[in-house]
Amino acid sequence: MDKALAAKQLEAVLKQASAYTGKGSVASYIPELAKEDPGQLGVSICLPDGTLLSAGDADVRFTLQSISKIFSLIIALCQNGQKQVFERVGKEPTGDPFNSIIKLETIKPHKPLNPMINAGAIAVAGMIQGKNIEERLNSIVDMLRKMTGNPSICVNEAVYCSEKRTADRNRALAWFLKDSGILTTDVEETLDLYFQHCAIEVTAKDVARMGMVLAADGINPQTGERYVPEEVARICKTFMVTCGMYNASGEFAIDVGIPAKSGVAGGIMATVPHKMGIGVFGPTLDDKGNSVAGVELLRLLSQEWKLGIF
Amino acid sequence: MDKALAAKQLEAVLKQASAYTGKGSVASYIPELAKEDPGQLGVSICLPDGTLLSAGDADVRFTLQSISKIFSLIIALCQNGQKQVFERVGKEPTGDPFNSIIKLETIKPHKPLNPMINAGAIAVAGMIQGKNIEERLNSIVDMLRKMTGNPSICVNEAVYCSEKRTADRNRALAWFLKDSGILTTDVEETLDLYFQHCAIEVTAKDVARMGMVLAADGINPQTGERYVPEEVARICKTFMVTCGMYNASGEFAIDVGIPAKSGVAGGIMATVPHKMGIGVFGPTLDDKGNSVAGVELLRLLSQEWKLGIF
Amino acid sequence: MDKALAAKQLEAVLKQASAYTGKGSVASYIPELAKEDPGQLGVSICLPDGTLLSAGDADVRFTLQSISKIFSLIIALCQNGQKQVFERVGKEPTGDPFNSIIKLETIKPHKPLNPMINAGAIAVAGMIQGKNIEERLNSIVDMLRKMTGNPSICVNEAVYCSEKRTADRNRALAWFLKDSGILTTDVEETLDLYFQHCAIEVTAKDVARMGMVLAADGINPQTGERYVPEEVARICKTFMVTCGMYNASGEFAIDVGIPAKSGVAGGIMATVPHKMGIGVFGPTLDDKGNSVAGVELLRLLSQEWKLGIF
Amino acid sequence: MDKALAAKQLEAVLKQASAYTGKGSVASYIPELAKEDPGQLGVSICLPDGTLLSAGDADVRFTLQSISKIFSLIIALCQNGQKQVFERVGKEPTGDPFNSIIKLETIKPHKPLNPMINAGAIAVAGMIQGKNIEERLNSIVDMLRKMTGNPSICVNEAVYCSEKRTADRNRALAWFLKDSGILTTDVEETLDLYFQHCAIEVTAKDVARMGMVLAADGINPQTGERYVPEEVARICKTFMVTCGMYNASGEFAIDVGIPAKSGVAGGIMATVPHKMGIGVFGPTLDDKGNSVAGVELLRLLSQEWKLGIF
Q1: Which PANTHER family does the entry mention (chains A, B, C, D) (predicted)?
Q2: Which of C111, C201, C251, D114 has the most CB atoms lying inside 10 A of its own CB?
Q3: Looking at beta carbons, which residues of chain C come within 8 Å of D168?
């Protein structure tokens, strides 16, 4: 890969995708997110040798939101093993919106269909062990600091508090899970952990580095240090394909073809196996909850560089 | 009506219906209710002149459970008026189980279809005014004491606590309503009121007297004292026909034809316009949540005395 | 009842309700119905002595549409008995639109919840016996001719053909029923019978007379001639309350309180037990499929004459 | 790849997976399929150089059933282009059983979520062009003959007729699509085409060759002859990952990780990009409709040879 050329292409793609920032709107249901400047768009690419290529608002901080579901799943899998985790959360895409409660009632047993929808991620949060919320949260934050080499990664308290105040639908999901026996920990504490890991603040550069670790099957390809077991990294990448982009995952798989996970703050973490991690930030969302310009940017990039895995 | 004959017939019908006590099972999801002796069956009839005809376990105390939804609705309608109440809860039967959450998501606007399902009754509880839970609860208890002339009616604390501990599905419903803006009061406080009014303890005799008040369009037919506005009594009786027996209401309307409301403790309050109130208690339930023997008893009685309104 | 006064009041109520004709729109999914003049409104009342009081467009002919579901149910019950009929169709209101297919899949066993929704009425049509479609249809038409004393009642061929050409959703329902074993007769033949009985043409006066027969428990109150068994008439009136006005039945029961069945051609048949039958015709419909002005007219009339049964 | 070793490993894996043939049951809803010997299991692997490695019942003929949905989609995409096809059928996994009708009503617009569920495949069949059914069917059969080099591939008339007689649920789906305007061709003709392409008869060897063509991005890797446009092959492989194994696709993606499509006759076509096509046949199915032993065989093979794409 000619890095100078790649940097230029990245700038061009960013420019082209910028036209899409006006097509969606910033998340309104979390007041703190609603303040975001809709015109922003940033991308960063992390290569196996650690090189970062970036364009646009790659240093703007945003919260992981649903991207964090990948990392809470990693911790839960490491602490409990596949067998226990998948007894309480399934592996199937749903075709429903991320906050839907219907299938919790219609599907028997009442377990969330996958860990990428809110209900599933709340169930996963309930499986993260630690002697208190702080310790449980730190298991996620510490891993992210290591993966990114950025020790300043932490929770955005304002977003966390905003989320906590307005998350009544998530409370409904959590109590339903409690009633079904899927969630066995304290509901408000578990939600607290969930809201906090959603509010972890990063930049597109951080996200690119996280994506690179998954692309390298769980290691830092420069140092060989392992952060995520290979098997767990594989599971995460699979979920990113089948359920990573909410109920537009199928479309994204066909149109872009890269394992990716989005969040309603406008971030997307994409992972091109053995080649690169990609972090994108563009806060205007489509009706499914994905960054409009971010998806377009990844589509263009995938086309330009033939990144699709299919 | 020949009262001596009626008393005899009542005994015969009770005996016949007793065979059905073994066909269902006592409510298991509230531990305190699960302790109930399944063989019990009692009935009491209150005539316009105040006469009570009773048979079987008519003095056994049980909790109102869903029967109380009628009385919380009465208070909410009296305090807020029809317009405000029906902005937050509909008037339609659902075809779904009483604790279903699906239609809260699928129906737009997200308001509960009627006040007889749990979601609707929780919304109603949120509309009962008072400076604290105690005052709000008392508005219901006081009315019931007046209607029955029984000043000792009160909440069964053991059942209330049992219910409160195991009501996570109701919490899910309440938080969903909170998220939709249907519930604007504090969730746990509102649930507390809901659990307490469900746990009000009565006998079949008390319930017969309550049913007689509704049968007399809201007054005590002996004294002429009014407890419920005529219009509100009419609305309640209509709901008892269309939604009073959970998702077996349509069947009950055809097979029995009397406005009635059941509860999962095994009680049924029935109302034969201008003729009588009926209280039934039989704790074994069918799969919809209605007293098996109680429904059979009312069917036989309706047939024997031609009580159906259709 | 002072008939002269009643006639005047009827005129006044019709005038007042006429204001609502502009609030809905005529059924568009059956092309032939879409041609209807939206400004029309007519009402006719049949008293036990046979007197007809009418106002407005009481002589305009329109097709029964869903009102016919009452009469196909009568024939099916007479020919097969309750036990057999209710093995294939339930007795519960649904909370869903009349042409919904969802509950056919979600409810076990897969039988339609009631005979007033399309799926249920198609199942009922499959239970009407006869050596061919003509004979099966005639069992309905003959009964209507007798009930109304109008030997010219027959199918409107243009509407029937229009309906047949555009009824693909009904075909979907019928094949689903076939697959579930609920429908055992030929699908297209059964639909043909269903479309034809929906397209039976009447006036508000005819409908008033039909309603009077049900109000008189199945007989012509002047001659004592029985057209419908008492038990069957009772079942029909019950269904009219719980499911007669599509998924606005609960609201209608509270706001109007009279057993009634509507059709998408704008007709409503109402039945005030022992007092009167009412036929209404107003072709503009609300979003549930009920005549807007017709419902308002019945509401005013019920209020004026205290006709509610609750 | 050491072919002798591979052949041995294949035998071992087949033997191990054979233990699972007893765990499911053969499809019962198509009578002709119910006759199948449940103990069968066969596998064939086609390498880029055309080598076939086979074990077990690799020469037993079975019908493609849902595997054919991949090939009808190919023809429809080639004839109409992506834009037109995806206006009528979506790209999202559903989380529902393959013959579910619910989302056709709940999702707006009413288009099937993807072309791998029955509703979607029927919509696709409606887009295959030709002057009659025979010509339309031949476009599929001809392609399969070329891809496999087997000119004798044709429809199994007994299975086709059996399917046609018992496919009322599919008729319901088709009429729903007709009503929604998704299907614009004649319903019975379209279903006829659908039933026929489902009843195309093949062996595991044929299927392995088909899978190899998709693995080679649409060409015969030996001759370079192109049968499927690269872009279309990519789309198919993506659908195989997200929706190929009914509502167990997510689980299969994690546990096996190979693009695959199953059918209720017990066949599975799997595609390992650039490496191999795999055909499996094992007629006992799990409750989702996938070959129990076939899935196990692929899981073992994927593990042994590290075939997963994630």
Answers
A1: GLUTAMINASE
A2: D114
A3: 175-176, 178-179
